[in-house]
Amino acid sequence: MTTTIRKLTMARAISEAIAQEMARDPNVLVWGEDVGVYGGIFGATQGLYQKFGQDRVIDTPISESAFIGAAIGASAEGLRPIVELMFVDFFGVAMDQIYNHLAKNHYMSGGSVTLPVVLMTAIGGGYSDAAQHSQTLYSLFAHVPGLKIVVPSNAYDAKGLMTTAIRDNNPVMYFFHKGLLGLGWMPSDDWAEVHVPEEAYTIPFGQAANIGEGTDISIITIGAMVPKASKVREQLRQEGISVEVLDLRTLVPLDKQAIIQTAKKTHRVLIVDEDYRSFGMSGEVAAILAEDALDYLECPVRRLAIPDVPIPYSRPLEQFTIPSTTRIADTVRAMMD
Amino acid sequence: MTTTIRKLTMARAISEAIAQEMARDPNVLVWGEDVGVYGGIFGATQGLYQKFGQDRVIDTPISESAFIGAAIGASAEGLRPIVELMFVDFFGVAMDQIYNHLAKNHYMSGGSVTLPVVLMTAIGGGYSDAAQHSQTLYSLFAHVPGLKIVVPSNAYDAKGLMTTAIRDNNPVMYFFHKGLLGLGWMPSDDWAEVHVPEEAYTIPFGQAANIGEGTDISIITIGAMVPKASKVREQLRQEGISVEVLDLRTLVPLDKQAIIQTAKKTHRVLIVDEDYRSFGMSGEVAAILAEDALDYLECPVRRLAIPDVPIPYSRPLEQFTIPSTTRIADTVRAMMD
Amino acid sequence: MDAPVEMYRMMCLIRQYENRMAEVYAEGKSPLFSIAAGPVPGEMHLAAGQEPVAVGVIHHLREEDVVTAPHRPHHFAIAKHVDLRRMTAEIFGRTDGLSHGKGGHMHLFDPRVHFSCSGIVGASFPPAVGAALAFRHRGQDHVAVAFAGEGAANQGTFHESLNLAATWKAPVIFVIEDNHYAISVAKDTSTAIAKNSDRAGAYGIPGVFIRGNDVLAISEAASEAIARARAGKGPSLLEIETTRFFGHFQGDAEAYLHPGEKDTWRALDPIPRFRDSLFAQRLLTADQDVAIQQEVAELVEDAIAFARESPEPQPADALTDVFA
Amino acid sequence: MDAPVEMYRMMCLIRQYENRMAEVYAEGKSPLFSIAAGPVPGEMHLAAGQEPVAVGVIHHLREEDVVTAPHRPHHFAIAKHVDLRRMTAEIFGRTDGLSHGKGGHMHLFDPRVHFSCSGIVGASFPPAVGAALAFRHRGQDHVAVAFAGEGAANQGTFHESLNLAATWKAPVIFVIEDNHYAISVAKDTSTAIAKNSDRAGAYGIPGVFIRGNDVLAISEAASEAIARARAGKGPSLLEIETTRFFGHFQGDAEAYLHPGEKDTWRALDPIPRFRDSLFAQRLLTADQDVAIQQEVAELVEDAIAFARESPEPQPADALTDVFA
Ligand SMILES: Cc1ncc(C[n+]2csc(CCOP(=O)(O)OP(=O)(O)O)c2C)c(N)n1
Ligand SMILES: Cc1ncc(C[n+]2csc(CCOP(=O)(O)OP(=O)(O)O)c2C)c(N)n1
Ligand SMILES: [Mg+2]
Ligand SMILES: [Mg+2]
């Protein structure tokens, strides 16, 4: 048996998953702004228009409420739409359709209506796109019940989680970080470009990935902060600090057990997040620890996240707001004192 | 000196504060759906149309993006609009104007643009208005930077906080709970109807109110859960449990010191919230404890909140989802064991 | 039954339902009106007076055709043959309700007849476009009909959805029921033009305004728009003038109405007018009418009795159905 | 300077700015294009070719009149006399920028001249209505002008804002610049009718389509609409046909264009056409033109030099200005 490594960028991993599911199920359609000939501004739909044509890969007007809301009616009638919201930052023009309807109709119908929709969207900063194009915001969607929340950190997970998302009978929000996609024209973390099997596979929701075992301290994180935490782990190993890195992978469902277990193992937890610090993901993870692992904590929980400011444009300002490997490493060291 | 008690419902306290500020400053205008002749669906603008006329109290079309967005342009040009979003549940049709513009323009302009806008909105359930008309959702707005978040629990605070909100040079979101307003046609907590001085007064943002001292355990809460917590406090006193109740009053700014202090004092904290449990207010407060009061906690932090389901319509179902005095009391007792 | 008589019967059924629902809703709410009290708590938006809109349009629909409706949904639901017993049980919040009590009056879902509604103004438009896309994708000639009040025509979703449907040539019929008010706000203080149907021009689609709350005129215009959609010629916009006999919601004091305004509407009650014309054309006899009234009254009482007998859900059932 | 020559000069200033900005933006981005590299990182949407829209309209505005602009804002900002040095420093992300580096290219705010913009498509409409309301409330005859691309005319905010402005008779002019594309999506695949100006009928307000990217024709139509607004007669809608010389953003490969499409546009460059007509009418001499080119080039170089010399902000300044 030979094992060949087939490295794929995350953008290609995503579009491959979609293509495979479209080939498998004629009810899978894709729509959104510039998803056709352009292939998606971030390449998540590259090649699909050429392969499946304009009846299944549809460019929309700039009318997010209408075309996201259309996914509700379409999925209720048997389609399985994959809809792209170009940047998550634009959610506010369509949030009512997303959270009052897409998220709630299954519940409000007592389970009689199912809406198998994937709403995929780009997140993240780091390239000076300023306050309206650089956010992550997944915590908002995790707060309102009814949406599954997926945030892959690498190409392998991206493909498997997208396949799971498309086959799931619930609305799934799928967040891809621009800085992991491997786009060429956008700084991208090499760490995310990994071996991706050609055949379709699924990764279950609600299972965190232990990215690297450790015994001294745990970093709990997600998305683009996973590669950063992993690099810090390597670096600190040389300093004799053993860091465990937990990639949550999905926020809804959330792998509470993995969070509690790593805390029980290392007794120190740092949460790293690219969303705003307050009232979000980092708070929720810390709360779970305060509820279910309090007696195992040897030092206060710490959080690194965007410090409750809109994302600034200027490079030094923006870099200051996003948790860096340096700041993560410094915080870990301080926690080990 | 004689002290006369002047009890006012919260709805009257709010409209009185607005009327006084409108009389004081001709730039204060009110607009929204049914705020005119009708006086606001929840009475927050009662009497204003009659007093100030249709040029200053303006009924709008059902176009929340346009009329909330209009407050941005109007306030940049010197008005001080008070805008009503009838139910917070409708935010999704206007969220882009609220959080990408109203909240961020001051920052994105480097401080050169100020937007003194009060966006007031009704929250809360308990009367079978189902999944699209019963939420609190303030955590969402507290998560995105740039909005001050005010949630009064009684008529006295409601008036003082509204006056502060109108005079503040920032966008302020003011959430009034339907079950505290004293509306007659809606079940309302008597606790909220208190003495309200006639003359204008302000209550500073960012100062929690200690509703009742205690030594055994702290309940940290806000809005309509404050009266419930207070009742539990009275009840448990008779059982020999001394409960401290902290009313946060504003989520942004958040009185972190008060949170930490009460934990240091009682060593036990229960957080009670009518927002969804996960990724919200209750998580943030627990996280602050895990960061800054860990060593003072004698038992795990507990949270009572809406259990991550859309608010159901049917009475027994809805009552099950909203923290009740019984459940609060039981939880406190369990934590004292 | 002849089509006009069938329409008449359906209007009577709706009227009977709404009148009885007004009574049932009032139970437990006097002397002091309390929205949370009685067997049917929460908001209650009744559609008596607006029957012609629902019946005139939906009369032409098949079971597979989709209807999306707004916060005032009963007339649409009944005309679309939503299960009356389960719908009523839902409004009572009981286990045999369409949603086992999770939805309620503003959230009626009956996928069997492709009916849904929403409490958010303007939310009925986008899903209809999506359903229509699904039909077209499968080569079916089903249509989707989105209903909304005239107040909803000022929401962004109206514009986006009409443009999207027109661009996609999707088989959707958008129907605005103009009952003159959005809660307390009169149409002419919120809408820049007199007839929303004129907005069809902004999307290059046909727009028809139908005056007089007349079910036959409505039926005719709807029939044309639906045929057009089935034939693949794209969407249409209808605006239908109608009248609201009750308040915006039950408990509305309606202080915003001009004196006598309500009387004018009630004087134009579409049901007796239609009945008289059926009598005049000898399509209906007085005996038949009595039989119809009796039949619909029985249906309504049966549904209410069914609802009353259905058990309340178990509290912890609140936790199920978040995800499939 | 005569009005036409003043307009010509302003168009030249904008063109020079955009051409130089294309070069400056490219610094540090070769051989491999990287959006995050060079002195000007982030997205860059240039408006070369679209000068007539900004100049023809804004020429008629006062300092107190409000302009709200979209993600492609430079031409509007320059025409509205936004401080060119501070605007450029902002685009460079420097401390002397309008927002001290917090806003950037899509977020230029200059309250002195009542200019703002936004990176969200369709977001320029609502604030303009509010500004107009403020003017009316104070009895001032200022106006607000909201600019947006033809793609934005399919957003809900377009509809809501036009209806609101028309209902309130607010002094707003809505200007759609039709450059045929919204990123890769052609107008005729996203917009159900050929001319957005026809949508004015949906709000009972005047709607004018101006062909040919001709600054004088634009100026004439704008002058009328602005006078109307100042006179208290309410809003107008203009749609102006124009052409985009660069890609949607810098780095756009424009694979979605038909072969030769760009050449057609470039051949109709509005600036040489206007210059030639000024020559023909003897409103401008070749010498004067040389002087203008030199003057605008100096202004642009001065602004770029100012920006380059301005210091980078201190990282921790990121934490200020969240609240006033
Ligand atoms: C987005 C949104 N805004 C406001 C409301 C509150 N609301 C409920 S019904 C209604 C009036 C609707 O008027 P119309 O569309 O004419 O329907 P009608 O009630 O007259 O049948 C309003 C403002 C809502 N439910 N959703
Ligand atoms: C609400 C929203 N949706 C999508 C985008 C992404 N986007 C930015 S510019 C653009 C195209 C805009 O086209 P148009 O309005 O015609 O302006 P142009 O770029 O042609 O000047 C899109 C889709 C956005 N910024 N905001
Ligand atoms: Mg109406
Ligand atoms: Mg364009």
Give the CATH topology of chain C.
Rossmann fold
Q: Tell me the number of helical segments of chain A per DSSP (H or I, 4 or more residues long).
A: 12
pLDDT average of chain A, as an integer? 97
User: So what's the overall shape of chain C?
Assistant: globular
CATH superfamily of the largest domain in chain A: Thiamin diphosphate (ThDP)-binding fold, Pyr/PP domains
CATH superfamily of chain C: Thiamin diphosphate (ThDP)-binding fold, Pyr/PP domains
Keyphrases for this structure?
heterotetramer, A: 337 residues, Rossmann fold, 7-stranded mixed beta sheet, 12 helices, globular, C: 324 residues, alpha/beta, 11 helices, 8 strands, binds thiamine diphosphate, binds magnesium ion
Describe the overall structure.
The complex is a heterotetramer, with two copies of chain A (337 residues) and two copies of chain C (324 residues). By secondary structure, chain A is α/β, with parallel strands linked by helices. Chain A is built from twelve helices and 14 strands. Chain A has helices at 10-24, 48-52, 64-76, 95-102, 105-108, 138-143, 155-167, 225-237, 256-266, 281-292, 315-321, 325-336; strands at residues 7-8, 28-32, 57-59, 80-87, 118-123, 148-150, 172-177, 194-195, 209-212, 217-221, 243-247, 250-252, 269-276, 302-306. In chain A, helix 1 (10-24) packs parallel to helix 7 (155-167), helix 8 (225-237) packs across helix 12 (325-336) and helix 9 (256-266) crosses helix 10. The model of chain A has no long low-confidence stretch (mean pLDDT 97). With 324 residues, chain C is α/β, with parallel strands linked by helices. In chain C, helix 6 (156-168) links the parallel strand 3 (144-149) and strand 4. In chain C, helix 1 packs across helix 2, helix 2 (51-58) packs parallel to helix 8 (215-230) and helix 4 (84-91) crosses helix 11. Chain C is globular and about 50 Å long. The chains are: A alpha/beta (337), C alpha/beta (324). Chains A and B meet through helix 4, helix 6 and helix 10 of A and helix 4, helix 6 and helix 10 of B. The complex binds thiamine diphosphate (2 copies) and magnesium ion (MG) (2 copies). One thiamine diphosphate sits between chains C (71-72, 119-122, 148-152, 179, 181-183, 248) and B (33, 62, 64, 86, 90, 93). One thiamine diphosphate sits between chains D (71-72, 119-122, 148-152, 179, 181-183, 248) and A (33, 62, 64, 86, 90, 93).
